[in-house]
Amino acid sequence: MPVIQSGVRVVASRLPKVMPPAAHAIADYAIAASFLGMAAFFWRRDRRAAVACIGVGASQVALSLFTDYPGGLAKRVSFHRHGRIDMLRAGVIAGLPGVMEMEDASRRFFATSAIALTAIAGMTAFEKEYARRWRRRAA
């Protein structure tokens, strides 16, 4: 799956950065909700996948709450750094099924989620100038 993710990263890097911080925040919380919802779905079928979903969903919520963007509460992580963490998390999510020896359905969910996270991060405007403009408008 890393080959597919690399392809998505190449394509996403060539796309215009059209996603503002508010849209990225909504996508982050939606991803967290999908992982937490899938934890309930996988609980009886694949306990390892369910536990991994809980960990990924909880860490996504924590990262979102600590990020300096709309929807973040503590604002300890800069939006630019959040983008770098997203790319790292996408790689970890893509590798979890192999490390945790998950079943096929779980593998597909994690692979799809990693690709989606990579694409969202690739289309987001993480530049510091954009973030400064957003802060000025919000103040």
Structure explained in plain terms:
The model has no long low-confidence stretch (mean pLDDT 86). This protein has one domain (2-6, 19-138). It is globular, with a radius of gyration of 15 Å. The longest helix is centred in the first third of the chain and has 22 residues, at 21-42. The chain starts with a helix and ends with a helix. The chain has helices at 2-14, 21-42, 47-66, 79-100, 104-123, 128-138. It has 139 residues and is mostly helical.
Helix fraction by DSSP (H/I, runs of at least 4): over 70%
The number of distinct helices, counting runs of at least 4 residues, comes to: 6
Annotation, overall tally of beta strands: 0
Query: Which residues form runs of ≥5 with pLDDT under 50?
Result: none
Task: Please tell me the overall pLDDT.
Answer: 86
Radius of gyration: 15 Å
Distance between the termini: 42 Å
Shape: globular
Give me the strand/helix succession.
HHHHHH
Strand content: under 5%
User: What kind of sheet is the major sheet?
Assistant: none
Overall number of domains = 1
The helix/strand class is mainly alpha
